[in-house]
Amino acid sequence: MDRSDPVRAVVSRVTALGGVARPTVLAREGHSRYRVGQALDAGLLVRVRRDWVATPSADPQLIAAARNGVVLSCVTMARRLGLWVAEAPALPHVAHPGHGRVARLPGAVVHWQHPVVPRHPDALEDTVQNVLMTVACCQPYERAKAIWESALNKRLVELSALARLPWTGTARVLAVEVTPWADSGLETLFVVRLRWMGLPIRTQIWIRGHRVDILIGDRLVVQIDGGHHVGAQRAEDIRHDAELTLMGYHVIRVGYDQVMHCWHEVQDLIMQAVAQGLHRA
């Protein structure tokens, strides 16, 4: 922070706060409203609304959240956290912060669920726990589970901590059922969609020094290719498939589009393999 120039110091602090900040927060830190006003007059900051200012290059989603008195949440915030989300939402998903009024927002999905973690009045992004709560209320079960397990896999939350939170509805079920082992949301969807078969279905199992995506029963391996399965990675996958076959495993390899858009074909492959006993040792 440049202490020799108080106006630049204000701008540096707003940048450090994510590009959008309340003047009251700046004032508590010793940056006077007069200096904030100078930064606004110089075009170094812009006024978002009466109680928020931003740098001109600030994140548009954060600016929109401040302008409308909401916090980014649900699948919008899940994507910002790097969690596995099946597809980008058509509209931003936000949540009422629990205080103040929110104007009608025809261009957004607004969630009104009571947060499981209190929301700070200066926050524009929901905590991961509140994101999981809104996701559980908003998304189909399998997609919500994929996001929850992505958060566990990335260690943004811990199972033991989830168990202590006051979940309601679908979130209460998810808190008991989720595991941290799925390396991709596709694996979660796969397990959820096939659990009706009543077979052991495990994810990320180590076989001969390599992890496989799915192991059904004792011998049926399912590998799910994402966009990174090209070049050297693809060659290594093919080599490992051959090695698994020589060890007595049966390998089925499918891609992202098949799981997401042609599930009936994938399910039929698994049903046929199980009917032939290929999952048995």
Short description:
By secondary structure, the protein is α+β, with helices and mostly antiparallel strands. 44% of the residues lie in helices and 15% in strands.
Which radius of gyration do the C-alpha atoms yield? 24 Å
Distance between the termini: 65 Å
Shape designation: elongated
Number of helices: 13
How would you sum up the major sheet?
4 strands, mixed
Question: How much helicity do the residues have?
Answer: 40-55%
Broad structural category: alpha+beta
Strand order of the largest sheet: 7-8-9-10
Strand content: 15-25%
Are there runs of 5+ residues with pLDDT below 50, and where? Answer: none
The sequence of SSEs as H and E is HEHHEEHEHEEHHHHHEEEHEHH
Strand tally is 10
Mean pLDDT: 92
Oligomer: single chain
Question: Would you give an account of this structure?
Answer:
This protein is α+β, with helices and mostly antiparallel strands and 281 residues long. Helices cover 44% and strands 15% of the residues. It contains 13 helices and 10 strands. The chain has a 4-stranded mixed beta sheet, with helices on both faces. Strands 1-3-2 form a 3-stranded antiparallel beta sheet. A 3-stranded mixed beta sheet has the order 4-5-6. A hairpin with a 3-residue loop joins β8 (210-216) and β9 (220-225). The longest helix has 16 residues, at 231-246. The radius of gyration is 24 Å and the shape is elongated. The protein starts with 5 loop residues before the first helix and ends in a 6-residue tail after the last helix. The model has no long low-confidence stretch (mean pLDDT 92).
